[in-house]
Structures are given as structure tokens and as C-alpha cells.
Amino acid sequence: MGEEETALQTPDVWSRDRLMGKSVSFKGIPAETEETNGSDGKTLSPRQRRKSKVKVDVKIDPMLWGQPGHLTDEEADVYFKFKAEIAERDADFRDTIFSFGEGEGEVWALCRWLRARKFVYEDVIKMVEEATVCRATAKQHNFYPDPKQALGCDISHYVHQYPQCYSGVAKNGAPIFISRPGILDVDAVECLTTLDGILKFHWFVMMCDFGDKLRAQKEKDAHFKRFECFCVLDLENLTMGQLSSRSLAIIKEQSAIDALCFPETMNKMFIINGPRFFGATWKLIKGWLDPRTASKIEVISDKKKWQEKILELVREDQLPADYGGKGPNTRDSAKEQYIGSMKGLHTEVMYLRGHGSVTYEVAEGDEVAIEVYTKSTSGAKFTVCDAYHKAPDWVTAFEVKHKGDDDATTIPTKETITQQKIKGPASIKVKADSNGGRWTTYNFLVAFLTY
Q1: Does the pLDDT value for residue 121 go beyond 70?
Q2: What number is the average pLDDT over the span 341-362?
Q3: Which run of H or of E encompasses 270?
């Protein structure tokens, strides 16, 4: 019995006819209901599924190109050739393709990779080989299952500087990821971790966090096939000054990993609240993208308009309240995912040249611990006192100095400068005296952890 005949008898193995959409009869035989779902979450109609030629499908919906059930004869040839090659390769090669596990389904995983290189067989093989090398070190560390160890700091502190979280699912089942790069504080991030730490954390996010959400959705809904993400990129508060080489390096390196190792995982992206200057930037960027990728991205600055558009694809109970829905707001979602038992977190960067100070109000019934992060090898001495001199100093001349090497991969030093939590109500003043003199600025991140 040939491979294609066997495929006809095995629900999870696709025959050539099924790949090309020919498995749907014109004589009233029921069409399969689990076929490709579009970005709007609607199951395709039998009439749509009967289309077998990619040239016809693209005119209907470019998002159907390269999807199972919509391949051309030539693309089906490449699919079976790719499948045979995987069977001959080692486990690392296969693991790269099935990065989210076998639960994704063979046809859906293979077609993701094939679409990424437009079904050019040699290019697909080269891509998988390069991705296998790219992920090798992370794989040796099991993709850094402890995110705190990966980052070298508490996740809550990092996310406070670069807000991001998963919250709900779109109508098609894709997890919703919301990111706010307009609030990204690179100076604070560099006091907490390194680019190497951020990339390790990114491996955790993709393989463990995002992967777990995909697998959970698949277990909940058997019709969920496309392992993709629904993204909201909120550019509120973005300034030209934030688009520095340091901030762009973070985004560039993360994007490079995603493009190579997790191809075709963006289902839809809304870029919202963009400043005026971003309009011209987007026109330039859009010209570099292929039409199918560009069609997945919508840039809308008007709040009412983007809320309406997103709600066409996301149910109200799944969209966060601060984005026009009725689901938990992103602050609560981030707290649940990352902050844990803390009541609140406040951070400030001290740009220390000689002397400096920051103040913080502690409410009645609250308690506060204070941490300081830095990569300054000169260090500074910190004193914590009552801002109005109504109480004795809580901390006196506590030295914080970076204990490691001053290189790009060494995690910054963290010190908890309070031996016990300070009880509110209190007006706290944190004063610092640099050990390095007045001619050089040293950065220290002061974190107030409220319980």
C-alpha cells in the first residue's frame, strides 16, 4: 500500500488530494470541519475548501496560501519530499521543526516551515539546518525553564521596564500577546540584565510560556490547528529617543530568533497608538514586506477604530478592559503572571554623578523592601532615611558595587539594602554617594517592593 493510500485511511496523515483540497466531494459527501481556520476564527465553508489551486485561493484570501487543503500539485510534491527528508534526519532536525511538540500536527508544522521559504525545498532545508544550530545551546539548557535564572533578575522587575503579557485568546484560538515598547526603559533594563539574559528569557517565553498556551488551547479545542499568535503592539508614549541602537538591538535579536526558529507563527498584528512620526516609518517598512505578511499587520492610531477592529476578531470577555474589552486588564494579568505576592512595584533609575536621591511614599498598612541593581564597578553608598527627618535612618552607608566583570554577558549585581521591611505610613528618601567622583555618570536602579 502506497503512502498516499495509507494517508486516506489515517485521519492525522494527509493524502495528496486532501492537501490540495480535493477530498471534499461535489456529490454531497460531508466536508471536514477541522480544516484551516482563517484569522477571523471562522471555519471555512465547503465552497472555499473545494478550491484546490493556489492561484484561485489567493484571490479569495491570501492567508490560505500554503495552508493544508490549499496546496498546488507542485507544493504537494515539496511537502512529501520534505516529509521523507525529515524521516531520514536525526532527532535534532525533527525537534527543530516540531518546536511546539508533536501535538501541533505533522501537516500544520511542516507547512509552517514550507510557507516560510515559499515551498523552495533547498531553502527550507537550509533554514531548518540553520535553526537547529541557532537553538542548540538553548536546547542543551532545556530552553531555560527557570525564567528568573535566565534573566538574572525577577521577571516582575524586567516586565516593569518592558511591559508585556499574554491575555486571552482570539476567536480563532490564537493566544493574545500585548507588548508596550513605548514604555521600554533601556537604562533600567541594563541595570537588571544583559542582552544575553534577555535572549535566554525569550527562549523561555517562546518554548515554555507561548508553547504551553498553544498546547493548552489544542487540548481545549480539537479544531485549533494553527499554532500562531495574535499580537497587539502598543506604541503609546514612544519617542524618537527610544529608538536607540541599544533598544533596537533587543528587538532585532528577538525577531531574528522568531523568524528563523518559529516561522509563520504570527496570525495577526495590530500596531496601535503610534505617534505621528511612525506613519512615515511604517510606509517604508511595509514596502520591504511581502504582501501576505503585510496583510497580517494593521496600523491604527485612532483608539475607537482599533478597538472596533480588534473586537471583530476577539470576543469582549477575552480582550483586556484597558483595550476596550471586558477581560482582566493587562496590569492585573501581568501581576498574576509575574508579580506574585507583591502588592506593587516601583522603580527609578538614579543617574549618579557625585550625589543623588529618590523618594517614595509608603501607605499605611503596607511594607516596603528596597533593592538596588547596578553594573558600576566603582559603586556607591546608600542611605535610607525619613524624608522629613521624623524617624532614625533605616539604612546607613550601605555600599552597592558590581561584583563581576564589566562585560556584556555578566549579570548586574543586586543588593537588598533593607535588612527588614519598612512599615507605612512613611516618606522614604534613598540617598546615594558615588564612589566614582563627579566626572562619570553611573546608573543604579532602585526598586521599591511593596507588600
Answers
A1: yes
A2: 94
A3: strand 266-272
